[in-house]
Design goal:
The complex is a heterodimer of chains A (about 160) and B (about 260). Chain A is of the alpha/beta class and about 160 residues long. Chain A has 5 helices and 5 strands; from the N terminus they run βαααβαβββα. The chains are: A alpha/beta (about 160), B mainly alpha (about 260).
């Protein structure tokens, strides 16, 4: 791993899902950034990790919303960056996919990767994070999930709804 | 007899080359959602062609410069009218076409507008063939050296920028090569058919292709059959090849199974 490298898992809306490309080729695109080592995980290993094994030759537009999110995560993971930035990873996905993504992210964090997640929808996954920042134009709360929940409830703010 | 064969050979080769080249360029443009830019460039070459003919220089040089200026003007206006780019581009397209028509009487240029619109493939010569071969070589070079980047920019332009890929440079090179393809093809098949060949063979395959490479190969083969077959049919029916192939492009879309 190179120091300070950042990989991005973009919002789904940033991708042209009608582009003629297979799952395998999409994940390989992550390799065009010249950061990763030669010993890194293969496309097959990463697709297996995100629960997409056997779908290598499928076209992107043949996938469900949740499967598309998993492909984006695999593409970000293949870059072996120090920091992984995830932009709205939970948008338009079903609860099992959300749980799976969270599981993979937890494994990455345990392996030493720093994860920055931007989301409007935390749900029950809030406790999975070490630190939470709530921003509503300005910084509203900053701390551990418990501290943030307390801050929000003390404020009696509608923001409390977002923190489950 | 030998002269007869040669006379047929170059137009046929030209038809086959243009038939495979335009859909290859069109694959790139349609998957990157830049086909309107190609349409604009195909029309923007007109003022340059007229000026070049009036100055008695190679029309393709004038057309190339004019096409690039059209693309640059459109890019500038796109930034000013963000979110309404199509309107801005269509205005530039109309403006450059009108300017070309205005320049004909102003510069007293001897130019056949009908042949620019529909081309005259039977009159294509060795110079046209070489010009088209150069454009084909440039396109193949772009595909072979920058394939991964072209895919990245097509499927995830913001991601390509974030990954520090040379997005602006590749887009500029693609614009220049598009201008080369358009200019070299216009001599043979005209503006109208260039646009038809950039789009129709691509649209037939775009939903079923599994990669950009696959898309390019399938579209080029279809374009090649379309042009080769269209030209033969035109000779058989004693019709002008350019307009006939243009109509066949549209028929092809109707015949495509959903």
């Amino acid at each position: 791993m190179c120091k300070g490298s950042i990989a991005l898992m973009p919002q789904k809306a940033a991708i042209d899902w009608s582009f003629p490309i297979t799952v395998q080729e999409m994940v390989k695109l992550g390799k065009t950034s010249r950061r990763q080592s030669k010993e890194g995980r293969s496309v097959e290993q990463l697709l297996n990790l995100v629960g997409m094994a056997g779908m290598e030759s499928r076209r992107l537009n043949q996938l469900s919303g949740g499967q598309q999110q998993r492909v984006l995560l695999a593409r970000a993971l293949i870059q072996e960056s120090d920091i992984l930035l995830l932009d709205e990873p939970y948008s338009a996905i079903d609860p099992p996919t959300r749980a799976h993504l969270l599981d993979v992210m937890r494994q990455q964090a345990e392996a030493g990767q720093t994860l920055l997640v931007s989301s409007h929808d935390w749900g029950k996954g809030l406790d999975s994070y070490d630190r939470v920042l709530v921003i509503d134009r300005h910084l509203v709360a900053n701390g551990t999930p418990t501290q943030v929940r307390n801050t929000i409830s003390e404020m009696g703010n509608v923001m409390g709804d977002c923190c489950g | 007899m030998a002269e007869f064969d040669l006379w047929w050979g170059i137009p046929l080769l030209m038809a086959l080359l243009v038939g495979s080249l335009c859909p290859a360029a069109g694959s790139l443009l349609i998957t990157q959602r830049r086909i309107l830019l190609a349409n604009l460039m195909a029309h923007s070459v007109l003022p340059g062609l007229v000026v070049a003919l009036a100055l008695e220089v190679d029309p393709s040089i004038g057309g190339l410069i004019s096409g690039l200026i059209g693309a640059l003007v459109a890019e500038r206006l796109n930034q000013r009218f963000r979110g309404r780019e199509e309107g801005a581009m269509n205005t530039v397209l109309a403006g450059f076409t009108a300017l070309g028509v205005l320049l004909v009487p102003l510069l007293k240029a001897r130019i056949d507008l009908e042949s620019i619109l529909f081309g005259d493939i039977l009159a294509a010569g060795g110079v046209d063939l070489v010009r088209t071969a150069v454009a084909a070589f440039a396109l193949v070079l772009l595909f072979t050296t920058r394939y991964q980047d072209l895919v990245f920019i097509g499927v995830d332009p913001e991601g390509a920028i974030a990954a520090k890929r040379p997005v602006s440079q590749i887009r500029f090179i693609a614009i220049v090569i598009t201008a080369l393809v358009v200019i070299s093809s216009i001599a043979a098949v005209g503006i109208v058919l260039v646009i038809g060949l950039l789009c129709a063979p691509v649209l037939v395959h775009v939903e079923r292709s599994t990669s950009l490479r696959n898309q390019v190969v399938k579209s080029s083969c279809t374009g090649l059959l379309l042009c080769g077959g269209g030209m033969m049919l035109a000779v058989l029916l004693d019709l002008p090849p350019g307009p006939l192939i243009g109509v066949l492009c549209m028929v092809l879309l109707f015949l495509r199974r959903p």
